[in-house]
Amino acid sequence: MQRAGSYFVAVIEDQETGRIVASGTLVVEQKFIRMCGRVGHIEDIVVAKGQQGKRFGFTIIKQLRELAHATGCYKSILDCSEENAPFYEKCGLEVKGLQMAVYSPDAASKKTATANI
C-alpha cells in the first residue's frame, strides 16, 4: 500500500473582502480492498449566508470531484441530510445505501465550533 491518505481543502474567496465564502474538503482514503484503491470522501461543504444561490457549492463539489479523479479515486462519496440530497444530485452524485453511525458517549460535551464564514 501507498500513503494512508491525503487531505485537500477547496475554497472560494470574495476578492473584494478577502473573506472565504465557500469551502469543502476531500479526504482521500487508501483502501486495503479493491486492489488498494482510493476513495474520495467529500466533507464539510459550506457556503456563507448571503452567498448561496451563486453556484459556489456546485463549483466546490465539481473541483473536489475532479481532484478525486486526478488523485486516482475509483469513487467519491459523501454523507448529507435528506433535505440536501437534491442539491448533491444536481451536482452529479447519486443516492446510494444507508448511513450508519455510533457516537461517543461524551460527544455532546465536545461540540466543535463552526467557522463563521
Automatic annotation (TrEMBL):
Pathway assigned in UniProt: Nucleotide-sugar biosynthesis; UDP-N-acetyl-alpha-D-glucosamine biosynthesis; N-acetyl-alpha-D-glucosamine 1-phosphate from alpha-D-glucosamine 6-phosphate (route I): step 1/2
EC number(s) given by UniProt: 2.3.1.4
Recorded superkingdom: Eukaryota
Keywords: Acyltransferase, Transferase
GO BP annotations, alphabetical order: UDP-N-acetylglucosamine biosynthetic process
Gene Ontology molecular-function annotations: glucosamine 6-phosphate N-acetyltransferase activity
Record has Acyltransferase as a keyword: yes
EC class: transferase
Catalyzed reaction equations: D-glucosamine 6-phosphate + acetyl-CoA = N-acetyl-D-glucosamine 6-phosphate + CoA + H(+)
Family annotation (InterPro entries): Acyl_CoA_acyltransferase, GNAT_dom, GNPNAT1-like
Pfam name, any one: Acetyltransf_1
Record domain N-acetyltransferase: where: 1-114
Family: Belongs to the acetyltransferase family. GNA1 subfamily.
Record PANTHER family: GLUCOSAMINE 6-PHOSPHATE N-ACETYLTRANSFERASE
UniProt-recorded name of the protein: Glucosamine 6-phosphate N-acetyltransferase
Taxon lineage: Eukaryota, Fungi, Fungi incertae sedis, Zoopagomycota, Kickxellomycotina
